[in-house]
Amino acid sequence: MELKNGFYRDLPYWKKVYDYGIRTDGQPVYRGYATINALTDDLTWIIFFSKYNDAGYLSEEYCLEGAWEDRVTLFAGFA
After folding, report:
1. Cross-strand pairs, 46
2. pTM here?
3. Domain ranges across the chain
4. Above 70 in pLDDT, residue 6?
């Protein structure tokens, strides 16, 4: 991989997971990043919570560290 073509999401030995919630337009509500060996209840996940406006465009995004299984609770104050 050339450095100029690399992105934060292209880190080796990391996995990405998505949760679309009730959205049907292909835009994720939650995105999680962790090392390949991380379990979903490990507190080492980097999790993004995305909010969209009425037109369906990304309007706000928050990032916290925690367990993937607790993502909804983790961002409860931002919803």
Report:
1. 33, 65
2. 0.84
3. 3-74
4. no
